[in-house]
Amino acid sequence: MFSRLSYGIALFTAVAVGGTLSAQDSEADKIGKLYDVLALADLLSIMREEGLAYGEDIGTDLFMGDPGPDWDKAVSTIYNLDRMEAEVKIAFATDLADDDIDSMIAFFDSDLGRTIINLEVSAREALLDETVEEASKEAAALALADEDPRMELIKTYADVNNIVEANVVGAMNANFAFYIGLMDGGAFPQALSEEEILADVWSQEPDIRTNTTEWVYSFLYLAYQPLADEDIQAYIDFSETEAGRDINNALFSAFDGMFEDISKNLGRASSRFMTRQEL
């Protein structure tokens, strides 16, 4: 779930010109407010923690044990929070150009919108604990098996927002980027063709889909427990509007780009350490 060159653009600083905001600055100000309302800085901080754990798993798998502090340092550098945030902000602002940002802010800055965001961030943070994650998966699986009406609402929300499919595509793109990073670093004795890499990535699709579906439902079921059914339905209704679709697409696009960059850099770092071990 992402190194880039430095970013020299301050997208979220409104500059006063003659005491007023220009149209462009006003738009940037709105996007900055939306970014804050969505608590994306908090979400990125949690994603970094997830990434550090993921990097540890990669190290253990690739190097057959504890890869040591040098690997941990490399992973931490790749998951640089400032760089992650800068990349997401730029992509977020680009994707939202000419969209109805006012409607997005109106929903997410409402009492219900803020409650939803707080619940989502809290659930994501809670799932950093493996015990909580396993319990959440079990609870969601039982709800699915029992055809719990609440789970039916959650499935509708996930379908409307294309959450499972978008996450499957994002995971496969990230895996492809990881392979490219390995190739860039010379991890393979001979170069693989793009077709060979794609074939291997596609062979992982069933497992990725199963794991993604399980995680999505467990996360949403945990996050939305305190909400009333009508609150979830209101979220579904907003998601079906043009503004709801636009913000959903912008978020997936911004985070997918970040994860692809991170995955490529994890592949490059892995190749360096693999070569070092062979020596």
From TrEMBL:
Ranges of residues in domain DUF2059: 82-140
InterPro entries registered for this protein in UniProt: DUF2059
Protein name as annotated: DUF2059 domain-containing protein
Organism this protein belongs to: Cognatiyoonia koreensis
